[in-house]
Structure formats: C-alpha cells, structure tokens
Please model this.
Amino acid sequence: MNIVIADDHPLVRQGLKQLLAAEPDMQVVGEAKNAGETIELARNLEWDILILDYSMPDRNGLVVLKEIKKAYPRRPVLILSMHPEDAIAISVLRAGAAGYINKESASEELTVAIRKAVSGGKYVSTSLAEKLALELEGGSHTRPHESLSDREYRVMWMLASGKSITNIADELVLSPNTISTYRIRILKKLKLEHNADLVRYAIKHRLME
Model:
C-alpha cells in the first residue's frame, strides 16, 4: 500500500512513518506539510491512501478532503486530527472520508484503519458508530455548533483558542472585517454574546484540544 502523509508538524509525520515502517505491506511514498503540497502530491504520485491532517495551515482540511475526493473519488482518505471526534468526525465522513482518527489514538488505530479503508470499508470508533446509529434512528439532537459551516467552525475554534481577529485574518488570508462578520454570525448561531461565552461553550462540548 502506497501512503501519502499530509501534516504540518514534522514530528507527527516522522512518528507516523516510524509506525508504518513496521508494516511490511505499507510504504510512505510522499509527505506534505500544507494543502498545496498535498494536492500536488496527489496529482503526481501513485498512491493508495492519503492520511490527511484536518488542521492544515493554508486551508481547512475539510476543503482539501472534498477537493481530493472530487479528483479521486475511489481513493480513500483518512482524517487525522487533534479535535475530539464529536466535533468533526461526522462532517468529514459525510464529505467522503474513509475514517477519522484522533492523534492521541493513532498509534493503536492507524494501521487497522488503513487496512479497512484500502479494502473499501469505513473506519470509525465504537463510540462514533453508536452516535451514527442514533442519528439514523432520529435519536440524537443536532448541537448548535454542528450548524456552522466549515469556515465558521474553523474561526470559532480559533477564537475559542484565544487568537485575536487580526491573527485569524492573517492565518486565513482574510480581512479583519470578514473575520468580525464571521464572529457575529457564529455567536448568533450558538446563541452566545461574548468570546468568553465561546470559550466556555467549546470546553463544555469538548471542542478544544
């Protein structure tokens, strides 16, 4: 299995490579540190599966996932993230991901997830499988943050992490006015008034690292 790893942290990429090196039927054929490199490698390499970090520095991982799946619908993409699965797992699965793995459990789950994804299956944890089953039965209620768009969720997470509007604007290559507009929209959707409320909300719903 030819594997491409996309993560902006060199130590994470090195750790994943060492983990996969122990598997005789798996080899890492490419590494990317941002969304642009990921898409470039996907076009130029022969690969069987992509391991994609959700929080890429230059583009939201969900956007990259959708672009990759549009170009290569039959090739599996596993999403790797520091976020709790409750926060984003369902949205990435709906977008076409073959599975979701939290970075804290990658050492135990990654190779199993890769084999399942390459064989055409979907990898989810037991707790997430139960949540999905409840949703299908209509037994779960949508939480306010699940109504946020991909970009709104990203801005919400950055605000709750303590980043200023200026810093967020620089990182997302948007104007401060645009970020302020996102902030107003996010607070309205979550029925909150201030950034401090946003921090408490994120902690309550386990949306932070």
